[in-house]
């Protein structure tokens, strides 16, 4: 007898993790936009003292972290909902808003988890192509909204292209969004965003009753391995996020590390500034060498390699750069250590020269 199974899962791909180089090769893993810096000493010390409590469940309400976040962000504690990484909260947001068959609109290409999460929640993903510059086409996204739309993701900066949406463009978009639709501004990379005109999620959350913001401790705070992220959402939505969360998904260790990170934001800011400087210098080096590369406001860069993608990616791998390639579209490379960034520049320039379309 065959086991019962949900047949719709047959058409859903599993989430693909960034590739990791084997131990034999001297290589840089730059495929998951991780923070190249080790955890702060203060975070490690704080976690060590917490280890003795792992025989107990965490406090699901996470009062210390929620209080610290509310104070830091200037929002009410009831608007904060935590999850095991912001990807879990993104899933909760769909579960909390979409009835079966309802639509979830987002730009494409964007964060790979969006279509998977929408399908798994029983919703229908509606993917609106990015414009020619790899940026959100907010006018087309507004047109894609209808009475079935439950939620819209705006990924700012966008993964994998690194582009941002202007505040004025998001205001114009919001004017066209019906009141029943929740607009989620996913700011996983917000700390690296130095664009002056960019939309800032919390500004929109404060000004519109149907906006939520997604933040993570994985990227700028370097806690990807502990899995902790959160939404700032209208109170009724945040309450439903708590209902859709996996009970005890956010560990006490993750909560503690997040609190400690907030207490040491000045130390983390030095690292963030270094990563932004490294990004700008890498972009400048590539441009000086004649490489066309998209402006990025995240901790990665994007090469629109189109049909050359596989060939260029193979060249990068041979040079020890393990990036994230999207066949036929382009390659995303995370900003890494100074050594990795120097290796990226050399590898990209030579891999592009050797790609079929360039010989
Ligand atoms: C745009 C975006 N949102 C959310 C996430 C999820 O991050 P995490 O679950 O580690 O918080 C990622 C991770 O790569 C991302 O790129």
Automatic annotation (TrEMBL):
A Pfam family it matches: Aminotran_1_2
Domain of life the protein comes from: Bacteria
UniProt enzyme class: transferase
Keyword Magnesium attached: no
Gene3D superfamilies: Aspartate Aminotransferase, domain 1, Type I PLP-dependent aspartate aminotransferase-like (Major domain)
N6-(pyridoxal phosphate)lysine: residues bearing it: 219
Cofactor: pyridoxal 5'-phosphate
Alphabetical UniProt keywords: Aminotransferase, Pyridoxal phosphate, Transferase
Family, per entry: Belongs to the class-II pyridoxal-phosphate-dependent aminotransferase family.
Biological function: Aminotransferase that catalyzes the conversion of aromatic amino acids and 2-oxoglutarate into corresponding aromatic oxo acids and L-glutamate.
Listed name of the protein: Aromatic amino acid aminotransferase
Organism: Paeniglutamicibacter sulfureus
